[in-house]
Amino acid sequence: xxxLRSNIGARLIQYLGGTxxxxxxxxxxTVLGLPPYYATIVLLATGSAAKQIxxxxxxxxxxxxxxxxxxxxxxxxxxxxxxxxxxxxxxSSNSAPGGSSYSLTQxxxxxxxxxxxxxxxxxxxxxxxxxxxxxxxxxxYSGGLFGLATNINYGGYTLWRTGYAMYCASLPWAGVMxxxxxxxxxxxxxxxxxxxxxxx
Length: 200
Prior knowledge:
The chain crosses the membrane at residues 37-56, 68-91, 103-123. This protein is mainly α. The chain has helices at 2-5, 8-15, 36-59, 66-86, 104-132, 152-199.
């Protein structure tokens, strides 16, 4: 919100030699005082934070050490901030003039974001319910959404991160996000999880 409202994101783009979009004062009544396109970006960041906080406080049964929690929060903050800054760079922004109308890629981005966020959240809720039953102690969960894919939670994360990127900066940045997440999950996260499950 601060990056948009203070125009610090636009000033950063200009400092780096790019052409920034100046966010006009809005006549449209929004709670945040931003045009709808930019108000939605703030809501996307808020939704991603709310999902992560819910996971950490209500779903996860593992202790989250402070250094790991700081890294996780910083990682998500950096990605959200990059999306926000790209939304005010004239070369990458997915904003219509004045930020008042929506495009097809924005609509697809919102659909991917909503589907992915729900998928990541709900599959974890299903797994927690399964694990709360004492009869399932130590058993792997392969029902519900996890019946569709072993790592459906990573798939959900990839969907919403890609949708968020597409909404803010259209297809090129969404492609970079998909490539980054696929590489990270396939090279690090999934093999680590598979090893953990095999050891159990």
